[in-house]
Predict the 3D structure of the following.
Amino acid sequence: MSSGHPNCCPALRVVMMPRDTNPNGTIFGGVLLSYIDQAGAIEARKHAPRRVVTVAIDRVEFKQPVHVGDVLSFFTTLVKRGRTSLTVHVEVEAERFVPPRETVPVTTATLVFVSVDEEGRPLPVPP
Ligand SMILES: CC(C)(COP(=O)(O)OP(=O)(O)OC[C@H]1O[C@@H](n2cnc3c(N)ncnc32)[C@H](O)[C@@H]1OP(=O)(O)O)[C@@H](O)C(=O)NCCC(=O)NCCS
């Protein structure tokens, strides 16, 4: 299952702000990771009976820099359903604020979430 792609129904959309920059003036990778984690959790939560926690961020690829004013869309796809784990692929696109107003793929990541109960113990996901 997917949040939809291309251009439709991302799990999350957000505008990059000046507070999100690194010393080079582009967007700090840690900020992107935080949003990637949120977007992945939004997808994983749809498939879990209660809550999910992030157990692994397996691979993140920063393909292009992100700039202040860019509108980021986070597209999510559930790629694997384990007994208690859910693996989600996240693709991030940036709609550039300055001309040319293009939309470019900037980052991809694969994350593993675990379905847990109220005490944080692994809880099976429905098949
Ligand atoms: C997630 C957590 C509950 C798993 O506990 P655990 O005792 O390792 O549980 P299990 O060994 O039964 O593993 C549960 C599932 O996670 C998977 N898993 C565990 N560690 C993993 C890793 N490093 N990478 C990928 N999958 C992993 C297991 O394969 C298993 O999947 P399955 O049930 O689909 O086969 C525990 O590690 C935890 O609480 N971690 C902290 C999570 C957290 O706070 N995240 C927020 C970021 S700080």
